[in-house]
Amino acid sequence: AANHPTDPDADEILARKGVIVLPDVYANAGGVTVSYFEWVQNIQGFMWDEDKVNKELKRYMLHAYASLKDACKANNCDFRMAAFSLAISRVARATLLRGWEA
Q1: N or C: which end of the chain has fewer CB within 10 A?
Q2: φ, ψ for residue 56, nearest 5 deg
Q3: Rounded-to-integer distance, Cα 14 and Cα 97, Å
Q4: Among 26, 30, 32, which residue's Cα sits nearest to residue 54?
Q5: By the 8 A CB rule, do 67 and 90 touch?
Q6: What is the pLDDT of residues 24-36, one digit of tens each?
Q7: What pTM value is reported for the model?
Q8: Is 100 left (phi over 0), alpha (psi -120 to 50) or beta?
Q9: What's the CA gap between 83 and 67, in Å, rounded?
Q10: In this structure, what is the dihedral angle of CA atoms 76, 78, 81, 86, given to the nearest 10 degrees?
């Protein structure tokens, strides 16, 4: 399900059939998040056990899913567009907080 495996036509067909398609960036987020956990552990010189990793991953993924659902409702769009919308708004916010202007 990673890296935009369906084209826009397929997205429309699946939507008409009531199939919920999670965006590729969300589907890939678990592996990326665990890589971040590994980096943090290496920097700090400690190891989490598998239960701790899974617990933290679940917390992050559930929060991300809730954010996607909220963005879907706020923008009246599908999950993919909600993910793009969230990403763009977060990059814009970070840019402003760093003092950069468009």
Answers
A1: C
A2: -65, -40
A3: 39
A4: 30
A5: no
A6: 889 889 999 999 9
A7: 0.81
A8: beta
A9: 9
A10: 70
